[in-house]
Each structure stands twice: as structure tokens, then as C-alpha cells.
Design goal:
The protein contains twelve helices and 14 strands. It has 508 residues and is an alpha/beta fold. Among the domains are: 19-111, Nucleic acid-binding proteins (OB fold (Dihydrolipoamide Acetyltransferase, E2P)); 139-281, Succinyl-CoA synthetase domains (Rossmann fold, 3-Layer(aba) Sandwich); 343-407; 441-491, no CATH class. The longest helix has 73 residues, at 363-435.
Length: 508
């Protein structure tokens, strides 16, 4: 008897195709794990690829699962994934049939605890600091007494009331409030837009441009203050042309906008104290300075008056002042006559020396030298003239001889050409006369035309009474065709009297 092996024995289990089995597994996983929260460390992070999707893995010390964030979800994430960041991912488990693997499709992402947030903030702080956004040389001085104070905060919280009350107590100023959300997903974008909006206000416009900006928020947890740690807010604060004061949270709270701001205040109330002085203190200080100034002026006046009196007592009288100049004048008068005599002798000697030098450079001597040089130049010019005339005569004689030769050659050439053209003209004229109509008529032919000037070429055209014109070699005459078919022609006029003898006679 035959025994079948288990491998060949048919069973009741249905047969699956690979696609059907993959689809069943996918549905099973998605039904069982349609919403899960997974905590793990990001590994193998690949930023948005060409399609905009993000791929990485979540791992712990024992296992790893592939993760995918689609392009549309990635653009809405508040926390961006980074390599090594511990996060809590929310999504669903599904399969990928192409690799027979399972993966999590992430819908939201958040850091796993304060430690992860602090690591994220530290990484962001190092990145922005490397760009120089926190450098001290970028920070501006806060104006001592601003005319307009711009405040960026929530319009409904206690922060704005504290700032307004503190400004009113210290030194009332014009305040512009730009309302924003200080918590939530849109808070960072609103704060950055408010900073840029204050900077965009024109000088002297309908809305006054603030001289200083306060960005304020009350205290809260690290997650509540995350909007002021966003990169867009930090860059807006660093790019502000208006001095900016950061007053976010309590004194122990430190956000990234504090590093980029021109001044950090521990609280919103402290920010109001830093941007304006106390008016009463200023008035007291001004009064004290005025009193000190008046006292200093009195003391300076008294001291100058005493100094002037002392100097007046030390001044000499008019006689004492004039005695010295009088003695110097008498001494100078005594020395004047000998000095004048010495001066005259010195000038006389100088005059003698100048006379000798003038004689040596007399115009007569110079004229004689110039005449000698002119005579030499004349001799040179005469010799040059003679040489030039001789050379020119020789050149002219040579040119004249060449001209005679060229003239004789031109005359012979012109005569020969003229003779050749005359011979050609005679030949052409003889040929023209032999081919002309006059030569044909001279051989005894005649041209007969009717009254319209058309040629009569046959007897059929000569109808009785037709007036004809007959042209011979020595003239023409008129005739009329007689009746019948006979060509009886009557002369209309006598032949020309000046016709040469021996010409053709009358045909009729």
C-alpha cells in the first residue's frame, strides 16, 4: 500500500499570493496599531529628500523601527527631527511591501522630556552663535529717554499692565502695543513679524516709530517659552535696527532671544525700569546740578575779581612803562649817523662792482659778438645757397631731357594711334555706304509709297487713281495710277534740276 509524505499531502489551508498576504498583514497592523506613541532616539536621519519626505529610525538599547514623515506633515511640525534627539513620535504602524518590513508613519513629534529640549536648544544656540548673532559688538545702546516705547506682548495678560503702570510711575512715555500670541504654534511667527513691523515704520509717519522695543512675556515652563527659542524670532531680534529689550519669563528663565537682544531684563517690570529713568530723580538731579552750577559761577567770579585786583596792583605807572622805550630811542638816534655812513660806503663798493660787471656785459660787446656770428652764418648760408642752386639746376636739366624724350614718344604714339583710327573709320564708312539704301537706289531701283507712306509691293495694291510717291537715287516725284490694270503713271513734277547728268530717266 502507498503512503503519501506530509509534503505532498493536500491540506485545507488557502493559498495566498504574495500581494494578498502583504495586504492582509498591512491591514492587520494598521487595525491593531492605528494610533501609537513611541519613544526613542532618532538614528540615521536623512533630511527632506527630493520628494520632500523625511526618513530615519527610532531606536532604544534593544530594538529599532523605521520611521517616515510625509512632506505635508513635516512642514507643520513644531519640533524638527535631529540626529541623536530623543523624541516621542505619534502615528500609526504600517508595512512596506517592497521590503517586507514594518514602519511608523509619524503625524506629530515632540521632545522626550526637558533633557531633550535642553539638548535641542543648546544645539540651536551653538549654531546661531557661530553665525555671530549673539556677538557683543552687534548690540546697540538703549536710548536714555525714548520718546516712543514699542511693546510686543499679549494685550490681555498682566504683563502689559505691569509695564504701563511702571512707565507711568517712573516717566510717562508714548507706548505702542503690538498684540501677539506669546504661546502656541503661531507665537514665534507673530513675534518675528511684530519686530519686523516696528522696524518697517517710517520716520515721521502717521504712526510714530519706536525708539526702543520691549519683547515681554510672563513666566512659564520651558515648553511654554519655546516660541521665544525659535530661530525665526532670534534672527528677527538680531536684525532689528531699533534697540530691543528682552523680558521673557522670570529672572531664572533664559531663552535664545535674550542672547540676541541688545539688553536682557529679568522681568517685564524690570524692562520698563531699564528703558526710562525716574522723572522725580531727574528733576532732583537737575535742581542739584543747577544749584552747584550757580555756586561754581559765584566762586569763579569772586576768584577772578580777586585776581584782577592783584594784577592791577602789580601793574607799573605810565612813566615806568615809557622810560625804557625812550632810552632805546635815544641810543638808536646816536647810532644812526655812523650807520648811515657805513651803509653808503658799502653801497658805493657794490655799485663799483656792478659797473664793472655791466661793462663786461655791455651791449656793444654783445653786438660785436653777434655780428661775428651773423657773418659766419651768412657765409654758411651763401655756400648752402650756391650748392642748392647747382643741385637744382642739375635736377631741372635732367628732368627737361627726360621730358623731351617722353614728349617725342608720346607724339609718335599719338600719331600712330590717330592713323590707325582714321583707317578703321574709312573702312567702316565705306562699308556703311555700300550697305545703305542710297547705294541700292543708285543701281536703278526705286521705292514706291502710297499716300500714307506705306510701301507698294505689288501691282494689286496700285488701284486706279492712287497717288504714289516714287523715290530714286537723286530725288523723288509724285505719280497717279491710271485706270484699268495698267500702271500708267503720270509725273507729278519734273525731276530736280540739280540732278546729275546720266541719271535715270522718266519711266512713263
Amino acid at each position: 500500500m502507498d503512503i503519501e509524505s506530509p509534503e505532498t499531502k493536500p491540506g485545507n489551508a488557502p493559498e495566498w499570493s504574495v500581494s494578498d498576504l502583504s495586504g492582509a498583514l498591512k491591514r492587520t497592523l494598521e487595525d491593531a496599531f492605528g494610533f501609537v506613541r513611541v519613544r526613542g532616539e532618532i538614528s540615521g536621519y536623512r533630511g527632506p529628500v527630493a520628494s520632500g519626505h523625511v526618513y530615519f529610525s527610532l531606536k532604544d538599547q534593544n530594538a529599532k523601527i523605521d520611521a517616515v514623515i510625509w512632506k505635508g506633515v513635516f512642514g507643520r511640525l513644531k519640533t524638527r527631527p535631529q540626529e541623536g534627539l530623543e523624541v516621542i513620535a505619534t502615528g500609526k504602524i504600517t508595512t512596506f511591501a517592497g521590503k517586507s518590513s514594518y514602519q511608523i508613519i509619524i503625524d506629530s513629534l515632540e521632545p522626550a522630556g526637558i533633557g531633550a529640549l535642553m539638548a535641542l536648544l543648546e544645539e540651536r544656540r551653538r549654531k546661531l552663535a557661530a553665525e555671530g548673532l549673539f556677538a557683543e559688538e552687534r548690540k546697540q545702546l538703549i536710548p536714555y529717554l525714548p520718546r516712543v516705547v514699542g511693546v510686543i506682548t499679549s494685550p490681555t495678560g498682566a504683563v502689559i499692565r505691569d509695564i504701563l503702570h511702571r512707565l507711568e510711575d517712573r516717566f510717562p512715555r508714548h507706548v505702542l502695543v503690538w498684540p501677539v500670541r506669546v504661546q502656541g504654534e503661531t507665537s514665534a511667527a507673530e513675534v518675528a513679524a511684530a519686530i519686523a513691523g516696528f522696524n518697517a515704520l517710517p520716520e515721521g509717519g502717521r504712526i510714530p516709530r519706536p525708539d526702543v522695543i520691549i519683547v515681554a512675556r510672563g513666566g512659564g515652563s520651558l515648553e511654554d517659552l519655546m516660541g521665544f527659542n525659535e530661530e525665526v524670532v532670534v534672527r528677527a531680534a538680531a536684525a532689528s535696527l531699533i534697540p530691543l529689550v528682552s523680558a521673557v519669563g522670570h529672572e531664572t528663565d533664559v531663552t535664545l532671544i535674550d542672547h540676541a537682544a541688545d539688553l536682557r531684563a529679568p522681568t517685564p517690570t524690570g524692562a520698563a525700569e531699564k528703558v526710562v529713568p525716574v522723572r522725580a530723580d531727574l528733576m532732583a538731579q537737575i535742581a542739584d546740578l543747577s544749584r552747584r552750577q550757580a555756586g561754581a559761577i559765584r566762586r569763579l567770579s569772586d576768584r577772578r575779581r580777586s585776581d584782577l585786583r592783584a594784577l592791577a596792583r602789580a601793574l607799573p605807572g605810565p612813566e615806568a612803562v615809557l622810560s625804557g622805550p625812550r632810552q632805546r630811542l635815544d641810543l638808536a638816534a646816536a647810532r644812526l649817523a655812523p650807520a648811515l655812513a657805513r651803509n653808503a660806503r658799502v653801497h658805493e663798493q657794490q655799485l663799483v662792482l656792478l659797473t664793472r660787471r655791466l661793462d663786461a656785459r655791455s651791449p656793444r660787446v654783445t653786438l660785436a659778438r653777434l655780428r661775428a656770428e651773423l657773418a659766419g652764418f651768412s657765409r654758411v648760408l651763401a655756400a648752402a645757397r650756391t650748392n642748392a642752386i647747382t643741385a637744382e639746376r642739375t635736377r631741372v636739366s635732367t628732368l627737361r631731357e627726360r621730358l623731351g624724350v617722353l614728349a617725342s614718344r608720346a607724339e609718335r604714339s599719338f600719331g600712330q594711334g590717330l592713323s590707325r583710327r582714321r583707317d578703321r573709320l574709312d573702312s567702316v564708312w565705306t562699308l556703311a555706304r555700300s550697305l545703305g539704301p542710297e547705294a541700292v537706289l543708285a543701281r536703278g531701283y526705286a521705292l514706291v509709297r502710297d499716300g500714307s507712306g506705306a510701301l507698294v509691293r505689288g501691282v494689286a495694291q496700285a488701284t486706279p487713281g492712287l497717288a504714289l510717291s516714287v523715290q530714286l537715287a537723286d530725288g523723288r516725284f509724285e505719280a497717279t495710277v491710271a485706270g484699268g490694270g495698267d500702271a500708267s503713271l503720270k509725273p507729278a513734277r519734273s525731276p530736280r534740276r540739280d540732278a546729275p547728268p546720266g541719271g535715270q530717266g522718266d519711266l512713263f
